[in-house]
Amino acid sequence: MGAWELLLVGVVLLLGLCGVLVPGIPGSWLVWAGVMWWALEDPRPIAWWVLVGATTVLLLSRAVRWGLPPRRLAESGATPRMGVYAGAGAFLGFVLVPVLGAIPGFVGGIYLSERLRLGHPGAARAATRTAMRSGGSSVLVELLACLLVTGAWVGTVFGG
Question: How far apart are CA 6 and CA 11, in angstroms?
Fold first, then answer.
């Protein structure tokens, strides 16, 4: 697989990660499709193992999300700005403290967004709890699964 094709697969994965945070875009499906495209083009067995792992992780995240409250983020006052902060926090947390750092990064991003919007720490904590209860946990599970899959893909492409 050439460098341009790898770049396009990376763009599809990035769009999938952003799609998790944007309602109406099938983020996890885009991430899975990008990994499948790469596995079909790359003849190494490790590519197929990454695809099997991605499928397993994304199906498990789907099963976990069925047990969580449905997404009603708009009712809680969630804004696109909050999604950007939460996504950036999850990504930074994932990079700084591999895998588990995405959880406090996501919640921290929501808190920072609410703190900037509301100004008071107590009100920001309450708004963060409300956002997490009204579907933020569901978004976090899907985003964490997609970050895991993307991280496995990046590790395999650059690590060999």
Answer: 9
Q: Which residues of 28-48 are buried (b: 16+ CB within 10 A; e: fewer)?
A: bebbbbbbbbbbeebeeeebe
Using an 8 Å Cβ cutoff, are 61 and 144 in contact?
Answer: yes
- Residue 153 amino acid letter: W
Give the closest residue to 21 by CA, choosing from 148, 153, 146, 124. Answer: 146
How would you label 69-101 residue by residue, b for 16+ Cβ within 10 Å and e otherwise? Answer: eebebeebebeeebbebbbbbbbbbbeeeeeeb
Region at 77 (left for phi over 0; alpha for psi -120 to 50; beta for the rest):
left
Q: Report the C-alpha gap between 144 and 90 in whole angstroms.
A: 8
Does residue 12 come out as left (phi exceeding 0), alpha (psi in the -120 to 50 range) or beta? alpha
Task: Quick: pLDDT tens for 45-94.
Answer: 999 999 999 999 999 999 998 887 776 666 667 788 888 999 999 999 99
Q: What's residue 130's pLDDT?
A: 87
* Helix/strand number for the chain, H first, E second: 8, 0
